[in-house]
Amino acid sequence: MLGWLGGLALAAGALVGASVAALRYRGGLALRWLIAQASPRALGGSTVRINGPLRLHGSVTRPVLVVHGLAWENRPGFPGTFLRLDFLSLQFGLGTALRSRFRRLSLPAVYLDGLQVNLLRDAQGRANWEFVPPVSPKVRTNTAPARPAIARTATALPIPDASTNAPANQPLPVVLQVQLQVRDCHIAFSDAVLGLNCALKIASASFEAAPK
Q1: Residue 189 belongs to what domain range?
Q2: Does residue 153 fall inside a structural domain?
């Protein structure tokens, strides 16, 4: 057990160290390039760009990521941008995640400033927030003769986990704790199918999600 926890802590420390090095190299130039190159494949053709610098500060157990000038472009077929963000400050509770074996994720302080979101749906019913196109399941045909069923005489029972009162072979729930502050937020929604156009402006708001 101690060896497993030590390996996990070492891997997390190496990840934080690599992130610090990547972010401190010319204001996160390498990480910005990586995000711009990888986002189209992950988001169905939509590109995420960071036009300003990236900064990482704070302690090892509570690092703070600061992003300036984030632009999330619409996927092909939609004009303009999906999301713009002037400033983002995100604090991650790495110590809480390590102590809970990543079953409890904590974002003690998330601050968004100058957020603009444009939600669009065209006349064909396509939405710009559907970034990953649905993949049709492949139908496999099996021409080989069916194998006879084999009767089982015994079934292995799952080993319970005393800490969660759940079987060990079932995925454990992940608890997310978030404290969010938003300033100067604009959300626009346009639906060509319903002929609806509306907008929401939030001057300042605070949200908190802290499940027990």
Answers
A1: 2-126+174-209
A2: no
